[in-house]
Each structure stands twice: as structure tokens, then as C-alpha cells.
Design a protein that fits this description.
Elements (H helix, E strand, L loop, with lengths): L2 H16 L5 E2 L1 E2 L2 H4 L4 E5 L10 E2 H7 L3 H15 L10 H9 L2 E4 L11 H22 L3 E4 L4 H7 L8 E3 L5 E5 L2 E5 L9 H15 L4
Parallel strand pairs: 1-4, 3-5, 3-6, 6-9
Antiparallel strand pairs: 2-5, 7-8, 8-9
């Protein structure tokens, strides 16, 4: 059984127990491409007030829309290619990189354009066993948390001792846990030019020793 099948079985059990309206699946976008990347991005919740069902694996394999997915695609391309100049690659390069990663939301049901952090924490507490199982199935080596609130990151990775979180010098903490590097980064939709977050992520990963 491959990882995609394992994730599908997890989501079936998840929904059988919770019966969420508008549950959105996520996980490894394209398993054949993921085998050479092992990078997971963790975000808060889907931006979907209508609360319709869906699957990021289908959406992102087909196309890359909106700032949210474009930023993740750009960051991923940078990680995979030693951060070439920001203007040197095209949308199709970013889309290929987007298809090569894994992605998961803490809250699987849509919310608005602005997340309620207290609500996200309650969803995390309720579903943490499922979330941790999803992470273990994906088994990433690099986890980039885009939760916009360090307390949520700490709660999700509560097995990491507080003293194991270190500063990069850029306001972005990181921790090494086993063979995994966890980076507490910014949200992809942060209102700043794309080149700024791209260059910041390069500096952060250098300071965290990724790839060295």
C-alpha cells in the first residue's frame, strides 16, 4: 500500500468519526514526485466559507492559482534548486515544485480569509491524533509551518522540548527533532512582495543548516 492509499484510509476513518461538513483532503500532492523531496508545508485552514468538500491533491496537480499556492510553489522551487534568482524561473517551474511537496491544514474545514487562532487551536486539540498520524504517513524530512502563530506550532509538535527551539536571527525559530527539521515560518499569503519571503526562507534555511 502506498502513502496515498494510507492517507485515504486515514481520511475515511477521520470523517467516519468526526462527520465534518466540507472536509478537505490534503497530503502528498503527487507521490511519484514527492519521493525525491520529502517536504511538508503545514497551514491553518482552507479559505472556503462555503464549506464544500475537496482535495488539494486534485486541485494542485491540475493548476496553481492564487497567491497562497504560488508562494508555496516558489518557495519549493527555491528549496529544490538552491534558491536561484527569483525572476529566473517561470510559473511552470513553481507548479512542478508545488506538485512535488506534501501539504496539510490543521483544520480540514473551510474558514474565512482571516483565521481565528483560538478556533484553530481547538480544532488541533480535537484532531491532534489524526494530524500526527498524517505527518507520520507522509514522513517528511523538512516541515515548514505556516501557522502564523508559534503557539499553534508548539502545540502540534508538543513532543519537541521547548529548549530545542532555536533562533535563526530572522524572527523565525526552528527545531531539529530526530531526522526532521521543523521551521516556524510565515503564512504564504502574508502581504509582502514574493521576493521578500523567498529570500527570507533562503536565509532561514541556511541558518538552520538545511542541506549542509
Amino acid at each position: 500500500m502506498n502513502k496515498t492509499d494510507q492517507l485515504n484510509q486515514l481520511f475515511d476513518r477521520w470523517q467516519t468519526m468526526r462527520q465534518y461538513v466540507g472536509f478537505k483532503k490534503d497530503g502528498i500532492i503527487n507521490e511519484a514526485l514527492f519521493k525525491s523531496s520529502h517536504i511538508l508545508f503545514v497551514c491553518k485552514e482552507p479559505n472556503d466559507p462555503k464549506q464544500e468538500e475537496g482535495d488539494y491533491r486534485v486541485w494542485w496537480n491540475q493548476e496553481m492559482l492564487y497567491t497562497f499556492s504560488r508562494r508555496i510553489g516558489e518557495w519549493s522551487h527555491g528549496i529544490f534548486n538552491n534558491f536561484p534568482p527569483y525572476e529566473s524561473f517561470k510559473d511552470e517551474d513553481s507548479h512542478l515544485a508545488l506538485r512535488s511537496i506534501a501539504f496539510m491544514n490543521v483544520k480540514k474545514v473551510g474558514g474565512g480569509s482571516t483565521a481565528n487562532h483560538n478556533e484553530i487551536e481547538k480544532w488541533l486539540e480535537r484532531d491532534i491524533t489524526f494530524l500526527k498520524e498524517e505527518i507520520e504517513i507522509i514522513n517528511p524530512k523538512l516541515i515548514i509551518c505556516c501557522l502564523g502563530f508559534s503557539q499553534i506550532t508548539r502545540a502540534l509538535f508538543n513532543e519537541v522540548p521547548e529548549g530545542d527551539w532555536h533562533s535563526t536571527g530572522y524572527g523565525v525559530p526552528y527545531a531539529e527533532f530526530g531526522e526532521r527539521l521543523i521551521v516556524d515560518f510565515y503564512h504564504p499569503s502574508t502581504p509582502a512582495p514574493g521576493v521578500m519571503s523567498y529570500l527570507l526562507l533562503e536565509k532561514v534555511l541556511q541558518q538552520a543548516g538545511y542541506g549542509q
